[in-house]
Structures
1.
Amino acid sequence: MTSEQPIHGPHDAALVAGQSLEQTAGPLPVLAVVGRPNVGKSTLVNRILGRREAVVEDVPGVTRDRVTYEATWNGRSFTVVDTGGWDPEARGLAEQISLQAEVAVSLADAVLFVVDSGVGITDTDETVVKILRRSGKPVILAANKVDDLRGEADAAALWNLGLGEPYAVSALHGRGSGDMLDAILDALPAAPAEAFDAPRGPRRVAIVGKPNVGKSSLLNKLAGENRVVVDDVAGTTVDPVDEIIQLGGRTWQFIDTAGIRRRVKEASGHEFYASLRTAGAMERAEVAVVVVDGGNPLTEQDQRIINSVEESGRAVVIAFNKWDKVDEERRYYLNREIERELVRVQWAPRINIAAMTGWHVDRLVPALDRALEGWETRVPTSALNTFLGRLVAAHPHPVRGGKQPRILFGTQPTVAPPKFILFTSGPLEAAYTRFIERRLREEFGFVGTPIHLTVKPREKRKRR
């Protein structure tokens, strides 16, 4: 019997399965195995693995945490996540076990739903099916404990679940497991190709901002040559310009973009398509340097550009250009404008530069490094839930209408940008969600990156 550690997402699954991040281009695809208690999920997991890994006992509730293993079938590798029995109406410890199963589904690429063919469809099975449909994940239906032809007739009744063909299998004896595994491979995305010692490509940086704030001048200064045309006429740059530049002993890919107009619909001809290409360049970038004219007051257009970068999920660095033209009086008012207008993005690194002369341009690389580090920061699930426990204990959610929602569990499924899912007993107020985000930044950093927080309240179910 082996002791397995629970994992918290595809990224961690690759690590637990012994798959080095340096050896692959990304984590292995993940299959979550879910179902009611005592339907044979762990036995089926052992059958998929071809070895006895998962603890199996003829008692419901042996598996409680999400336990991860690496499996191979027909030359393809994938990660299998074994879960505890899922009962959406459970309470107490069983509720926490069910919550782990729901988290496993949210983090998986495909789901293997196991049903006891001898028992048939239960109310719990139908409730779980509704949740699986809402998840949008591919679902393979396994009718377990089919040991003979009579059992196959029982399995045929599971068509009524509406999940497609039920694969009649016997986890104990291996009957029908090959066809089920073929269906699993069809539902899972292809595993990333091996990339032993493959060098990472240059970090991609988009330079964005209003027309005529000095974006092209900045690129030319970084490149050490007149790579792009610079003119006082606004809108000189139309097509995004890619340039490979050596900075700080490393290679970067900078993308100079056209100035973002007030409204795309106000543009015409090449300006309209330039706006579309700028949006496309943003999609290719990892971090955006938003260039602002420090000599002029912050405008609504500047704020809209910063907000659009934040909404796109890219890391953000704000560069106040033309600093050589900023006097003491302007600096005073600019500080007041930053406090008032950029309060939502206080987490974004800010640098003051003069692109034409190159003054303090060398400060760009440290700012980019900090933003990218925050963009790729991952908080272990154990540390996240410890933090949430302390936070809720010290600052509980306000009572509204006699009810006080609680945070049951939190996880970070992805990075770049960091995304968090909070499973709660009820909806959280927007102000409390912003409070959690602020405290997350205080605790774990996340400099230069937006944070996406999703709240998933537990659904209320009518009593029969």
Note: The mean pLDDT is 83.
2.
Amino acid sequence: MCANFKPLKKSHANQLELFEPTFEYKMDIFPSDDCPIILSNENKLEWRKAKFGMLPPYAKEISFKYATYNTRTETVQQKRSFKHAWLNNQFALIPVEAIYEPKYINGKAHWYGIFRKDGQPFTLAAIFEETLIDEQKVRSMSLLTINADHHPFMKQFHKPDDEKRSVIVIPDHLRIDWLNCTHSEAKDFFLNMPANEFASMPKAEMKNDD
């Protein structure tokens, strides 16, 4: 699971071969916050802004009563909040500098940042929705997750007895393909995070260079 992340720094957009986003956003994202996402328009990557947490098509107000910021790949097609986006192939990328997960030490949660060892930003697999609320289109998204019980790196996070979950990192050479795939093809992109490319440290010790 992932409920907190550091989005792409605008000055790092060139590392994704993109122009800088033209809208503002915080550098510490939690559910209901606006954040940058990447969509495909005729095979070209484009910036959009979306709320972190899915607002399904039937939503009547901007309200996050349920934890819709992550969705399990095993059940996304059946869940009422997510199945419209999934079945309509509404795939997105979330560019981040780091994600934050709890590591339990002596029974207490300590938040750790997870980032690439080379300092490069990376992109996460997501689905997005566009919901009409009070005659205004509201875009929202949810991060896709896979089981990580046996992942050599991600299994260290979350409560000891809970199932371990991981976000899905889409590598640069598959970004366009992910954004343009169908839901029947999506499972081919459910790749384990390459453990040797990532590291972690306590969130409080991470460099704050926003």
Note: Helices lie at 83-87, 175-179.
